[in-house]
Design goal:
This protein is an all-alpha fold and about 1300 residues long. It is about 70% helix and about 0% strand. Its main location: nucleus.
Length: about 1300
């Protein structure tokens, strides 16, 4: 063979005249004539084998030359032939290369065949890839699927592409370098193959799962080229170039580099790629946004695949930690985390490995304070993975734990969530013990420290008795401190218990048990060799040390062990302190408005409770009210948490599981309030709703069949001995009534002479639990008895008769405590009967009237039969319009209302007790017994529920009790009762709303808590209109009681969900809180406003508030009010539009700028606006700041503003301008309310125009009002 084939740079170069002995294409076949030539090519392949490419290369080249015009079938046939040629060469070359007798012509012939076939196959593959991508792009609007028309053959390209790659890999894996002279493979041949590979990698779907075979084929083909054909440098450069333009290739190239470095042994490729990335400056990375993301993703993915191979080049990557790209900083931190978890971990590290490990940990800790929140969050997540993998050294625990607790205060939500997750991982994997208790750890540390200090005396004091005598004084002080109460509350409790002998005996028994435990602990620390539970627990974390062999000599190993024990206990104590601090901070996050943070906090509380951490129950109890949250995600999280902690019993048998469940719920109910019990009921109800549904059919029969047993056992002669059991029995019976079961048929009721009602009416006794039993008993009477009012009358008569008999025997009422208790029971019974009588009329009687009416209508309809068509149509139309049912229901409701207003309190037994209730409530000096006062107040409120007339007659008395009662429980009950009355008679209670809000400032925390709870329900349910009195709720945001603060925060979180509610209220809240008469400190004002302004997120609301607050500078008369307004402005998230409005209102506050309290907040606004601002806007901010500073330093009269120049040009006098800047205070009515700082309002009598700043303006009106405010102010002054 006299010619050589050179791989061309361009396809067209092969038809040009070449050099000496260079192959040139002689015949380019037209597209229409190609099929016969392909047939010849195919025949030659069958007869001659793969060397036929030497004669038919022009045919393949012609297809390549006319690829845009040739038919698809011709291209597919050509591709198939070329694949067969390459595969044939791969099969025949091994024997040829192994042969020793090969001539130069034969070697040249094989080489030309290889280069020709590979060249045509690679170029045709690139053509098919381009056509495939073009077709998928064109067909994308058709649902994202490739159409059948216009490209049927390309549908199989994915499978054909794999065959091409497989053939190339088989060929290039052979040692074909010997075909070239001196085994130097020409660069053009390598570039031809690599360009084809990189072209295939540009496919957008190459990273998808379906493309895995293609992706693996490309990776292995490039691996062969890198290993055997010197493509190392070219691959490194190409990886960087493609990453800059194709972000989706980051994971593909990470996988490729890991395969090349491990399976092909080319570790240098990692250094090449990382070095290329490391040499990129911060400026270059800033210009290439997409490239930075791809680089960061590539580094992180590569670090997770081969962390041990990244370590030699880690110094290059660490330089990016000082760069501006936060994505690169995140990636490098993740690589460090992978190295620490998978490489630099364990006890087998040498000194160099330990130094690298400590250096990497220090680097990660530095970036816990990174300027970018995303970096801080990811570093916390890296630490979470390290802790979960148990790769964090023991010496680093306290340091990292402290940093994690500090990140709980971060402004970023993601950082806070990550910090909570890290702290949960610390507790779940802590190496100190499964139960973290600071007090126990501190005591053990003190004892161990005493033993350690006296170990040095063993050379002198050899006898154990002498050693004990030396340690005894300090041990005595330590043990005494441990046995004494640690807090004032415990001391007070102990003093109270000392009064009672039984309590003393219990304390003695507890101390008797505690002392041996302490002595045993000291004995274990001093003389044992690790046989007890605590020592075995410590030995799991401490390296083994030699035990002492002689009784009288203490070896150095024992002393070292004692030192390690002391250090271990110190670390444990530090860890316990940090855990307690974390719990206290995270517990406050349970009522934040961010759902994801609340979910993480709930999960953390579950974790600490599962590991029995001290004070963990506080968080579990605090999150319990969240079961009523309107956010379903939070509610579900709480329900699942309690199911996991208390409703998921463990045990082998059903009985064991049942006992465990009862014990868990009993533990939760210890010292539980009524609210806690209701929350648990809601959780349990959600858990057993399926069980209730399954047993609802047979429930009534089960209870009725055992009704006699319940009456004889729980409600019989011994009922007075256990009213709690009687109450539970009554509640069980109530569960079968129609009110609970929502039955639609005839009401289920028992006759009056039933044994059940006889037992209930006879059960009267002087017992503290009688009232709770009585409330449930009266409820059952009205739910289940025929004519319950008659039974309740008998019950009232019997109770009153017993009271009169006691009075006759005991003397005056107000001097006998027993009589007061009996009277309190009677009045409580009266109120309960009055309440359930009204409920009986409005629910049971009304429902029965509707049922009977329905039955009557159905019966009449059947008796009447078919009527005229017209009458039927009219009746059907009336039913559709709801006229028939509506008129009948109105008549029934009017009847019930008339009965309540005229008959319930007219000449019956209930009316007899009303004057007595009024007398007891209005004479607290005469009737001062707490139980009597409480019962009378509650009963009076229940009487007031009967009718509007009764409510109006006694409403003033009820509010007087609310304000003047000395008993907090009476005031709290009055608030609840008045809340119910507000729902029932809103028009009557509306003028008294201010008195309800006044209880928010009550001196007793329980009253404030009740007030904010009731008002929250009334406001959120739209019973009370939201007005300026909400400022009293805002004050509770700084309440000293954390629970009240949480309730106030929850109130505003819920209120913020209502459109513009907080936005409309803010101006009035600021006015009220800034009132000098209130005397609120600036720090408290700032704290409240910071929380309230966090709800203002809309740009238009911010803009409007800027104008409102600026206008209020004119009505503010004190320096403190000016400062508060300026501080409020600085709390707004101001944007460009808000800043423009601030400039427009310059005249409102410019004369106040000499005050530092006004100037500094406004200056902070400009500093905040300047960050990240564009050049033009930044110039405006700088100019405004100069004006502020000039007026502050020299005064307004010495600074000429642009507005003054404009006004002067228009002819406005300077004197008028001065009046505009500092208006004279208005006289008369504007100063009669709430001091000087009031929202001016229009007078109803005078028609003079006056400026108004109503906080209830709608958002849409703000733009219209802003243009004529100055004109209105002029008119006000002239008037």
């Amino acid at each position: 063979m006299s010619w050589d084939f050179f791989v061309p740079v361009c396809v067209g170069d092969l038809v040009k005249t070449g050099g000496i002995n260079q192959y040139v294409v002689q015949d380019v076949v037209p597209p229409k004539q190609l099929p016969p030539y392909l047939s010849k090519f195919k025949a030659a392949l069958r007869s001659q084998g793969p060397l036929c490419i030497l004669e038919h290369f022009d045919t393949g080249y012609s297809v390549l030359q006319h690829c845009n015009s040739v038919e698809l079938g011709v291209k597919e046939d050509t591709l198939e032939l070329l694949v067969q040629v390459v595969s044939g060469l791969a099969a025949s070359l091994p024997a040829f290369l192994a042969s020793t007798s090969v001539s130069a012509d034969e070697r040249k012939e094989k080489l030309n065949a290889v280069k020709m076939s590979v060249y045509l196959l690679c170029k045709l593959t690139e053509t098919f890839e381009s056509d495939s991508y073009r077709q998928s792009f064109v067909c994308l609007p058709q649902g994202g699927k490739k159409g059948k028309g216009g490209g049927e053959g390309l549908l199989q390209w994915d499978s054909e592409r794999e065959k091409v790659l497989q053939a190339l890999v088989q060929l290039l894996q052979l040692d074909i370098r010997s075909l070239w002279s001196l085994s130097l493979v020409e660069e053009e041949f390598i570039s031809c193959v690599t360009c084809c590979c990189y072209k295939l990698l540009e496919n957008p779907t190459i990273s998808h799962v379906k493309s895995k075979p293609t992706r693996d084929g490309i990776i292995h083909l490039l691996g062969v080229l890198i290993k055997k054909y010197n493509h190392l440098l070219g691959a490194g450069v190409k990886v960087i170039q493609l990453l800059q333009h194709f972000e989706q290739l980051s994971s593909v190239f990470a996988q490729a580099v890991s395969v090349w470095s491990t399976e092909y042994g080319v570790r240098a490729i990692i250094g090449e790629v990382i070095r290329e990335i490391g040499q990129r400056s911060s400026e270059e990375l800033a210009r290439e946004a997409s490239g930075v993301k791809a680089f960061a993703s590539f580094i992180a993915e590569l670090g997770s695949l081969v962390p041990e191979l990244v370590i030699p080049n880690i110094s290059v990557l660490i330089t990016h930690l000082e760069g501006e790209s936060h994505s690169m900083r995140v990636a490098v931190c993740e690589v460090l985390g992978e190295i620490l978890v998978r490489v630099l971990c364990g006890d087998g590290l040498d000194e160099s490995g330990k130094a690298d490990r400590d250096r990497f940990f220090d680097t990660l800790q530095e970036h816990l304070h990174d300027t970018h929140s995303h970096v801080r969050a990811r570093v916390l997540q890296v630490y979470t993975r390290i802790v979960n993998s148990k790769a964090l050294p023991l010496c680093k625990y306290s340091e990292v734990m402290e940093l994690a607790v500090g990140r709980l205060m971060d402004k970023s939500i993601n950082v806070v969530k990550s910090a909570i997750q890290l702290l949960a991982a610390f507790i779940a994997h802590n190496p100190y013990s499964c139960k973290v208790t600071k007090r126990n750890t501190s005591f053990r540390l003190q004892i161990a420290d005493i033993f350690l200090r006296f170990h040095s005396l063993t050379e002198i004091l050899i006898k154990a008795s002498e050693l004990w005598a030396a340690m005894e004084p300090e041990l005595l002080v330590t043990v005494t401190t441990e046995l004494e109460p640690t807090s004032e509350a415990e001391r007070e409790q102990d003093e109270e218990e000392d009064v009672e002998e039984n309590k003393e005996a219990e304390d003695d028994r507890a101390t008797a048990v505690k002392v041996p435990n302490l002595l045993y602990m000291m004995w274990s620390l001093m003389f044992s060799s690790g046989s007890d539970e605590d020592t075995s627990e410590l030995s799991q974390n401490l390296p083994p040390t030699p035990q002492k062999e002689a009784e009288k000599e203490v070896e150095d190993g024992e002393l070292k062990k004692q030192e390690m024990l002391v250090q271990y206990l110190k670390d444990t104590e530090t860890f316990a302190l940090q855990v307690e601090r974390a719990i206290s901070v995270i517990n406050t996050m349970l009522y934040l408005k961010t759902t994801s943070v609340v979910q993480e906090a709930v999960q953390f509380c579950v974790t600490v409770c599962e590991f029995s951490v001290a004070n963990s129950v506080s968080g579990v109890r605090k999150m319990l009210p969240l079961v009523w949250s309107t956010d379903s995600a939070i509610k579900d999280a709480v329900v699942q948490a309690y199911r996991r902690l208390y409703l998921n019993p463990q045990g082998e048998t059903i009985r064991t599981k049942a006992n465990t469940l009862v014990d868990s719920l009993s533990e939760l109910m210890v010292d539980a309030s009524l609210g806690t019990i209701q929350c648990v009921e809601e959780i349990v109800r959600n858990s057993v709703i399926t069980l209730v549904w399954l047993t609802s059919v047979a429930e009534r029969e089960v209870v009725l069949s055992n009704l006699d047993t319940l009456c004889s056992v729980a409600l019989g002669e011994k009922v007075t001995e256990d009213f709690l059991l009687a109450r539970d029995a009554v509640i069980t019976i109530c569960s079968i009534t129609d009110h609970v079961r929502q039955s639609k048929g005839a009401p289920f009721r028992l006759p009056q002479d039933h044994q059940l009602f006889t037992c209930l009416t006879q059960a009267i006794a002087d017992d503290p639990y009688w009232q709770s039993f009585m409330e449930q008993a009266v409820r059952l009477l009205y739910f289940m008895a025929e004519s319950p009012d008659q039974l309740c009358t008998r019950l009232l008569q019997r109770s009153a008769r017993l009271l009169l008999d006691q009075i006759a025997e005991g003397g005056e009422l107000n001097k006998d405590a027993m009589n007061c208790v009996c009277l309190a029971q009677l009045l409580a019974l009266c109120g309960c009967v009055a309440f359930w009588q009204v409920s009986h009329l409005e629910r049971s009687v009304s429902a029965e009237l509707r049922r009977r009416r329905g039955e009557k209508e159905e019966r009449e309809e059947k008796e009447k039969g078919p009527s005229s068509k017209q009458a039927a149509n009219e009746s059907a139309m009336e039913e559709e319009l709801g006229l028939i049912g509506a008129s009948a229901e109105d008549t029934e409701a009017e009847l019930i209302r008339k009965i309540c207003e005229t008959e319930l309190l007219a000449e019956n037994l209930l009316s007899v007790f009303l004057p007595l209730l009024v007398r007891v409530c209005s004479s607290p000096g005469r009737y001062s017994h707490p139980q009597l006062t409480t019962a009378a107040c509650l009963a009076l409120s229940q009487y007031m529920m009967i009718s509007p007339a009764t409510c109006e007659e006694n409403i003033r008395l009820m509010f007087t009790v609310l304000e003047r009662s000395a008993l907090p429980v009476v005031r709290a009950n009055a608030i609840i009762a008045l809340g119910d009355l507000t729902v029932r008679f809103p028009n009557i209670l509306e003028p008294w709303t201010q008195n309800l809000y006044a209880r928010l400032s009550d001196n007793v925390p329980s009253v404030r808590q009740t007030a904010v709870t009731v008002l929250t329900q009334l406001v959120l349910k739209d019973v009370l209109k939201v007005k300026g009195q909400v400022s009293e709720v805002a004050v509770l945001l700084i309440d000293p009681e954390p629970h009240i603060t949480s309730l106030a925060l929850n109130f505003f979180n819920e209120l913020a969900s209502k459109d513009n509610a907080i936005y409309n209220l803010l101006p009035d809240i600021i006015s009220r809180l800034s009132d000098p008469e209130r005397g609120m400190s600036s720090e408290d004002f700032n704290t409240i406003m910071k929380q309230l302004f966090s709800y203002i997120t809309k740009e238009r609301q911010t803009e409007s508030l800027v104008e409102k607050l600026c206008q209020r500078f004119r009505t503010a008369k004190t320096e403190r009010q000016w400062c508060d307004l300026a501080m409020s402005l600085s709390l707004l998230s101001m944007c460009e539009r808000g800043f423009k409005r601030l400039q427009e209102c310059w005249e409102c506050y410019s004369d106040k700028l000499t005050e530092p309290g006004v100037y500094q907040p406004l200056l902070s606004i400009t500093a905040r606006l300047r960050r990240g601002a564009k050049a033009q806007f930044k110039a405006q901010v700088d100019e405004f700041e100069k004006r502020l500073t000039a007026v502050h330093t020299r005064g307004l009269e010495n600074v000429e503003s642009p507005e003054m120049d404009e006004e002067n040009q228009k002819g406005v006098g300077s004197s008028e301008k001065t009046v505009m800047c500092t208006p004279t205070p208005a006289r008369g009515r504007t100063r009669s309310k709430r001091g000087h700082f009031v929202t001016p309002q229009k007078s109803r009598k005078s028609k003079k125009p006056a400026i108004t700043f109503s906080s209830d303006e709608e958002e849409d009106e703000e733009g219209e009002c802003s243009h004529f405010i100055n004109l209105m102010f002029h008119l006000k002054l002239s008037a």
